Amino acid sequence: MPAEFEPTTDQRALVQNAAAFGINQADIANQLNIDEKTLRKHFREELNSGKFKVDMLAGRTVTELMKSGEERVRLDAAKYYTARRMGWKETNVSEHVGKDGGPIENKDVTARELFESRMAGIVARRAEASVPGGDDAESA
User: Would the pTM count as exceeding 0.70?
Assistant: First the structure.
């Protein structure tokens, strides 16, 4: 019969850190060359406390940043905290409307119709910009 597994201090630290970083139990057990059942039996406290300790460290860091002397750092920390812990979020609303605030109109056109429309616009702008008398004024 094989000897009872006895975890080392280094293994306990590894399991606690791995659990804190979100590594799944199968991968942790594989790294230690033990079965998942053995992992849970001998490292229950490390598996449970790892994430909590990192969450506490992150929370303390955000709290300290919110007390920073730099306004930008305080603002970013506060935005992070309110978004994650209070459920707040920034919302951008884009409203698309058609002419004079009406509905957007879609019209299928052929390439030829589009070309003719643009050419007509160019001709109209040139006509508006031309000097009264046109070519006759230049020849005088």
Answer: no
